[in-house]
Amino acid sequence: MRQQIAAANWKMNLTIGQAEKLLDDILSVDWALKPWQQVVLAVPAPYLYPAVQKWKASGQSQVSISAQNCYSEKSGAYTGETSAEMLASLVVTHVIIGHSERREIFHETNALLAKKVDIALSFNLTPIFCCGEPLSIREAGTQNAFVAKQLEESLYHLDAETIQKLVIAYEPIWAIGTGKTATSEQAQEMHHYLRSVLAHKYGAAVAGRVSILYGGSVKAANAQELFSQPDVDGGLVGGASLIHKEFDAIIRALK
Ligand code: PGA
Predict the structure, then answer these.
(1) Does an H or E element contain 64, and which?
(2) 83: CA distance to ligand 1 center in Å?
(3) FRET partner for 170 with CA separation of 20 to 30 A, picked from 42, 222, 224, 248?
(4) What is the total count of domains within the chain?
């Protein structure tokens, strides 16, 4: 069984007091996770250190703390940025790379994201690589080519062994924060396509080992239906991950 992952993306939300309360709520639960199930918490950068401390104290071996971004260079005069090496030194294990908000608001290109993937991997961080199309592309029916290009330009320089170290998140932009979830059929169709694209490049066995998460208005009410699809290996969850009860139910919906 591929890793099935419930990943929380808190984005730029919560004060430290609220963040600590939510971490305490989440980390105090025993979900009796199966060996292939995992919970990842992508918290804002200033909360990574306290989050790691709380996670260590909790003894939750199937929970990981993730950053939401890192910079593409190793170190130096990059005021305001966070390096992959800094994250690794905090015992952060994952980093979201290429979220559509980074692509759209901060103009991150496929080429820049390739560099970010490389530097994250060089410090043994697991990139959660996001891809997904805007509404105009979905309406034009060209979403498959659009998303395949994102993978090609940011990931195809990796060899077959390395690509398996990544988690991919398919997040249609029209479904992010809009309450408009892709149907489970739409999600499955794209995830199956992405896996076939990976299989074409790396072979079916390798493609079969890469977890592909769905993101875009995942909530307690739709998680089970989405996660039950054969190529949907869990979710990257924004808004609903800020509400303990909602995220708890999403974790329990993992297959
Ligand atoms: P959402 O965000 O769950 O609030 O739609 C998902 C994401 O952007 O990762």
Answers:
(1) strand 63-67
(2) 24
(3) 248
(4) 1
Closest among 11, 3, 7 to 239, alpha carbons compared: 11
Note the pLDDT tens digit of each residue in 124-151.
Answer: 999 999 999 999 999 999 999 999 999 9
Q: 67 forms bridges with which residues in the sheet?
A: 95
Domain with 123, as residue range(s), is 4-252
Residues with a catalytic annotation lie at 99, 171
The answer to whether 96 touches 167, Cβ cutoff 8 Å, is no
**Whether residue 236 has its Cβ less than 6 Å from ligand 1:** yes
Pairwise CA distance, residues 155 & 162, whole Å: 10
Cα of 77 to ligand 1 centre, how many Å? Answer: 31
CB atoms within 10 A of CB 44: 16
CATH of the domain at 214: 3.20.20.70
Closest listed residue to residue 16, CA positions, set 57, 45, 36, 42? 45
Pocket test for ligand 1, best of 237, 242, 247 (most atoms within 8 A of CB): 237
The pLDDT, as a whole number, for residue 148 is 97
Quick: pLDDT tens for 37-59.
Answer: 999 999 999 999 999 999 999 99
Pocket test residue of 173, 226, 236 for ligand 1, highest count of atoms within 8 A of CB: 236
Q: Is 212 in the pocket of ligand 1 (CB under 6 A)?
A: no
Please, what is the average pLDDT of the chain? 97
